[in-house]
Amino acid sequence: MFAQMMDFLNRTPPDPVRLPFTSSHWPVLAILTAYMVLIKVVGPMFMKNRKAYDLREAIKAYNIVQIVYNIIMFVSIAYFMLGPGNYNFKCISNLPLDHEYKTWERWVSYTYFFNKLMDLLETFFFVLRKKDRQITFLHVFHHVYMVYICFLYMYYYGYGGHGLFLINFNVVVHIMMYAYYYQSSLGQDRQANLWWKKYITVVQLVQFVIVLSHCIYILQQPDCTTSRLSATWGSYVSVVFIVLFTNFYVRAYILPKKKNVKAAR
Questions:
Q1: Using only C-alpha atoms, what is the Rg of the chain?
Q2: Residues near 13 by Cβ (< 8 Å), separated by ≥ 6?
Q3: Helices then strands, each counted (H, E), the chain
Q4: By the 8 A CB rule, do 17 and 106 touch?
Q5: What is the per-residue pLDDT for 112?
Q6: Do 96 and 165 form a contact (C-beta atoms < 8 A)?
Q7: Among positive and negative, which fits the CA dihedral 218, 224, 227, 229?
Q8: 102, 135, 147, 188: which has the fewest Cβ within 10 Å?
Q9: Where are the domains of the chain?
Q10: What is the pLDDT of residue 252?
């Protein structure tokens, strides 16, 4: 596995077209380094002796943009895979460089990567509102990982293919997630109807189970041209996120109920 990974990392990009921030590791690493410094050092220092900012209107606008962006992205990716891309879902491969719809494949893939950069703004809202409890290890790890893994995939494996299939499940989760965020920003009356909050985590878990299952299916086909490393890494990461999100679900929704039952007795 290690030798396979090193061979993958030493490869030159299979696609000569490099879209913004994907020409090398440095732009992405610089963005992620700045993100970590700002949310962990500069931001808390700046807010230490200040009152939390009221960002309700900015957050509403941000959530609406995210909902619309993700809906358009989901429709575009689904249409492309089922239509012009004509993907074979039993063994998904990137379109060849001379394919007439290759440019489309590049851009629908890139829209997801760019959206992961947009997602980083969420943490800055937490910092400015002094919601430090929400800046958990899972939150930060997830954001950093998603930006960098998207870059690695596009840089070393190319745009589209197996990765494009996998990310569309995550787009569905994000539509639900930002719809929840938007509703929770509307005030106490609307917040009372947020009974479906926990099901976002359930959908996230289902997403990773589907990804894990599909990756295992790919790996069982020795003649499949899908990147073996992509499927292998997707399997490992799915297991990690299943554990992390299961732990979050238990702590957020199961243990509090048990405590309430004991307190009622």
A1: 20
A2: 155, 156, 158
A3: 12, 0
A4: yes
A5: 96
A6: no
A7: positive
A8: 188
A9: 2-264
A10: 84
